[in-house]
Design a protein that fits this description.
The chain is of the alpha/beta class. It has nine helices and eleven strands. The chain has an eleven-stranded mixed sheet with strand order 4-3-2-5-1-6-7-8-9-10-11, sandwiched between helices. Helix 1 crosses helix 9 and helix 7 crosses helix 8 (about 260-275).
Length: about 300
């Protein structure tokens, strides 16, 4: 069964594509067999942050655990939403006709569009009537769209940071820009925000809340906190949250139960930071080579 990662890259003219990628140095390179619905030429993708960093982390997990690589459905989008709309349209149609067995889907950086989101969710529901329902994971822009649509509680996992959690907890906010200030107060505990988001149906069943302390919540209740190793220089490195989401994707592909996958992913990210000994100038691509060793350490408590 396949897992599909859906997201965008900030590159004008990058074509809509579906296929597998491989790591070569600090870049992703497309495999020879790729579906390009509208034609075009695929360039290598630097692993700096965003969806390429997520894919790179998932690939490291897959290689470490001898898993098949995920499919990636990618589009170029520099912020005007056109590429994301093309991805929404393609995916909703593809799901309606594919015979591919899909174990799960991870949605990442996509321009939030409620209509596009709802079309995909309807297609997922129709797919699940004929096949096993896929596990649904969302982060970043697509998570915003899921909450804005009113169907966030149909997802299995969201991976918000503290600010995104505050948006999920605000039942009145139609967009993160309108999150009410009192919910952004750092004095409000993640436990309270998770409970509020769950009570209003504005989050997935499980939350992996990324921060100085990582928290896992299920059905609005905190079930785990991960605070070590504590590597302060990880905080200013852009893209570490993308690594966590990519790692948890790979662990779900491996069949780990949801709460174990979340705990292990958060721990892996922290251990990779400890192994890399980062400075404020460290780039996320420099952490990726340390993920396999960190993963093995993090999985010591679990059977995979």
């Amino acid at each position: 069964m396949s897992w599909i990662i859906c997201g965008s890259v900030p590159e004008e003219g990058f074509p809509l594509s579906l296929g597998t990628w491989r790591m070569e140095g600090e870049q992703l390179r497309a495999d020879g067999t790729m579906l390009l619905p509208h034609g075009g030429t695929l360039s290598d993708l630097p692993v700096q942050r965003g969806t390429p960093a997520l894919i790179a982390a998932t690939l490291q997990v897959c290689q470490s655990l001898n898993l098949p690589r995920p499919l990636a459905l990618l589009t170029g989008d520099t912020g005007n939403g056109a590429g994301s709309l093309a991805l929404y349209a393609f995916l909703s149609g593809w799901l309606a006709t594919t015979s591919q067995a899909i174990a799960g889907m991870t949605f990442h950086y996509l321009f939030p569009n409620v209509d596009g989101h709802n079309r995909i969710l309807l297609s997922v529901r129709a797919y699940a009537e004929k096949h096993t329902a896929p596990t649904l994971v969302a982060d970043a822009g697509f998570m915003y769209a899921a909450k804005m649509s009113g169907y966030a509680d149909e997802y299995d996992l969201f991976t918000p940071d503290a600010g995104e959690l505050a948006f999920l907890a605000d039942e009145n906010a139609p967009h993160p820009f309108y999150t009410r200030g009192f919910l952004l107060d750092s004095g409000i505990a993640p436990k309270e925000l998770a409970q509020r988001a769950h009570a209003h149906g504005n989050c997935a069943r499980t939350l992996l809340i990324k921060g100085a302390v990582d928290n896992v919540a299920e059905d609005g209740m905190l079930v785990a906190s991960i605070d070590s190793p504590n590597v302060p220089y990880m905080e200013p490195i852009g893209g570490t949250g993308d690594l966590v989401t990519g790692t948890v994707t790979g662990l779900l592909m491996a069949g780990l139960p949801m709460h174990q996958a979340c705990i292990a992913a958060a721990k892996t990210n922290r251990l990779a930071g400890a192994l890399a000994s980062p400075t404020p100038a460290t780039q996320v691509s420099e952490l990726i080579p340390f993920l396999p060793e960190a993963l093995l350490q993090a999985l010591a408590d679990f059977s995979v």
